[in-house]
Design a protein that fits this description.
By secondary structure, the protein is α+β, with helices and mostly antiparallel strands. The chain contains 5 helices and 8 strands.
Length: 184
């Protein structure tokens, strides 16, 4: 059975948390068991327990992520599709004004089945872009897919940040809404 754990990097983790915890669950109520913002590196030997400032320096190789435990792994593919709707997966290590490796577009997968689905959805997205059905800032999907590694939660004041500070900084927005377009 596919794992219920994953981590998603889509730029600043405050917006990633808001879109997934609030908006994704409007489509799939109760689908998220837990969601925590923090840091993960694609390198399993990366620095342990980095601080926010260390991650922001770009020297640790960690990405700002939302670590998610799904209630049911059956919604995993829908979540991956949704993930591509609210950030730009064509900008390397950047989302809007936020630039640096910590803002990379990343899917951290807990098992081979998750990786297979993530690769399939990423490939479909590229095909949809090539067909002109979805437009982003660039022409090639640069989202990276990696193994789920050690997760380090961010400080408590960063958890549910936009829930506590509704006018707080968020550069995420929908690139496209509604259903995932059909491929030709």
């Amino acid at each position: 059975m596919m794992s219920k754990s994953l981590a998603l990097g889509a730029g600043c983790y405050w917006g990633t948390e808001k879109y997934i915890v609030k908006d994704f669950q409007k489509k799939f109520p109760g689908s998220i068991e837990t969601a925590t913002v923090g840091f993960m590196s694609p390198d399993p030997n990366a620095m342990e327990n980095p601080s926010y400032r260390q991650v922001c320096s770009g020297s640790t190789g960690h990405v700002e992520v939302l670590y998610v435990e799904l209630s049911d792994p059956k919604v995993y593919e829908a979540l991956v599709r949704f993930f591509f709707q609210f950030h730009d997966p064509t900008t390397m290590n950047r989302q809007g004004n936020d630039a640096g490796t910590q803002y990379a577009s990343f899917i951290f997968c807990a098992d081979d089945e998750q990786k297979k689905i993530a690769e399939k959805v990423k490939s479909e997205l590229q095909s949809l872009m090539d067909e002109g059905k979805i437009k982003y800032g660039g022409g090639k999907v640069v989202t990276q897919i990696s193994d789920l590694n050690q997760f380090y939660p961010a400080h408590e004041e960063h958890q549910q940040y936009l829930e506590k500070n509704p006018l707080g900084y968020c550069n995420h927005y929908y690139r496209f809404k509604g259903d995932w377009p059909e491929l030709n």
